[in-house]
Amino acid sequence: MNSGAISKRYATALLRLTLDNGSGEAVCLQVIRILKNPSSIPQPLEPDLQRFIALLVKNGRTEFLRLILRTYVDLYCQAAGMAHVQLTSAVPSADLEKRVKEELERRTDRKVLLESEVDPSLIGGYRVEYNGIMLDASVRRQLEVLQRQFVEKNNRIV
């Protein structure tokens, strides 16, 4: 069976459960914490999430857990009318997070659920992913563009 179909089916079931019980936001926040750092699972787990994970174990679907949880976050944000945005920066910056969130809320007229992570390989700058679109304002990307332009202009391999 297709892993995408499995993840969508289970994530939809979790979404229905959490929306019916009113625990959608709490479960979504716990899921984001689990996805960010799988080695530290928040205790106690939300009861709906705990029952859902037990169901996955019972049905032998634990190999799809990460994909199911990622799909759940997207489905929950869509159902709640929120924009799910991922911000990756070279260094931690609360000011950048605040500015990106405010700007996207202003432009989309939707509440923004912002996930941020640090990736030192960006060298500097940041990358924002929203709704399948990526804005890459990182130094690493700019260096890659410069290298490609240099190679094309000089017909040389660098």
Describe the structure.
The chain is of the alpha+beta class. It has 6 helices and 4 strands, in the order ααααβαβββα. It has helices at residues 3-21, 24-36, 47-59, 65-79, 94-108, 139-154; strands spanning 82-89, 111-118, 125-130, 133-138. A 4-stranded mixed sheet has the order 2-1-3-4, sandwiched between helices. Helix 5 (94-108) links the parallel strand 1 (82-89) and strand 2. The radius of gyration is 19 Å and the shape is elongated. The chain starts with a helix and ends with a helix. The mean pLDDT is 91.
Mean pLDDT: 91
Strand tally, please? Answer: 4
Which strand order spans the largest sheet, edge to edge or round the barrel? Answer: 2-1-3-4
Please tally the helical runs, counting DSSP H or I stretches of 4 or more residues: 6
Give the DSSP E fraction (strand runs of 2 or more residues): 15-25%
SSE run: HHHHEHEEEH
Distance between the termini: 44 Å
Low-confidence stretches: none
